Amino acid sequence: MTSAPLVPAPVTVRVPAKVNLELLVGPRRPDGYHALSTVFQAVSLYDDVTVAAAADWGVTVSGPLAAGVPENGDNLALRAARLVETHFDIDPVHIAIRKGIPVAGGMAGGSADAAATLVALDHLWDLDLDREELEDLASELGSDVPFLIAGGTAMGSGRGELLAPVLARGTYHWVFALAEGGLSTPAVYAECDRLRDDEDVPDPVPTAALMSALRTGDPHELAAQLSNDLQAASLSLRPDLAEVLAAGMEYGALGGIVSGSGPTTAFLVENSEAGIDLAVALTASGVVRDVRRASGPVHGAHVIHQRTD
Ligand code: C5P
Asked: Which domain of life is it from (predicted)?
C-alpha cells in the first residue's frame, strides 16, 4: 500500500500595520528611492495571512477592507512567495489574506502581507530562515517589509529598510481616520520632489527630541514631536485631508499627522477612553469615511495558528 504524500498544515500569520512617528525625507538617490530617516511604530490593526500548500500559486483577499487589492501576480504577498521560490525549491501555495489594514492608506498594508507570507512560508516549508535571511528577502520586496517582520518601535534608514532598535516606554493610543480612495506612494514622493523644486535637501538625521519623547512614555511629549515630510505632498494631492486633521485636533487629539504617504490620518490620544471619544466625534462629524482605534507598539508578523493534527 502506498501512503499519501505528506501535506503540511496551513499556517496563519498575523501582521500589524505601521505608523511613522517621524518621517524625514532626504534627497532622491540615483536608484530613484529617497534617503529616509524614519521611526516606525507597529500598531494593532492586523491582516491575517493563511498560507496553504496548493496545486497552483494563488491569492485571495477577504474582509471589509479587501476592495481594490489585486488577486493576481501583482499582489505583494504572492510576489513574496515567488521570490522565496527563486531561492528555495518550494511547492506552490495558496495565500488567503483577511484585511484589517486600510488599503493604499500609508499604513504599509501590502508590505505587511509580504512580511506575513515570508514568515508563514518559513514555517510551512520548514525553511529555518535566520533573521538576516528574512530581512534580506523582506528588503527586496519593499522598504517597509523588514519593519513589519520586526514590529515594536524602530528607526529606519537607507530607504527605510535598515532597522535599528529604539528605546520606547509605554503604550500609545491612536485613532486612524480612513479616507475615501487611496494614494499612490510613488505619486506622493514625486509630489514631494515637485514641491521642493530644486531645493538642496540635506541627508536626513533622526531628531533627538523624538527619541527623548519616546523614553518618557508620555503621549503629550510624543504628540509634540510627530512629523512627516510627506504630509505637504499628501495634502497637495488630497486637500480634503486638511479638514480631517483640523477636526481631529478640534475633537481632542494630542497630535495628528498624515500616516506615511496617506491618505489615512493618525491621531495620538491620551488614553483608550479619549480614543473612543475621538472616534465617535470624528464619525459624527461626517468628515471621515470610517475610523479605527489601535494601540502600539505591538509585535511584528507572528504565527497565530498552525494545525498540528
Ligand atoms: O519600497 P516600496 O516598494 O514600498 O516603495 C514604493 C515606492 O515609494 C517606490 O517605488 C518609490 O517611488 C517610493 N519610495 C521612495 N523612497 C523611499 C521609499 C519609497 O521614493 N525611501
From this structure: Bacteria
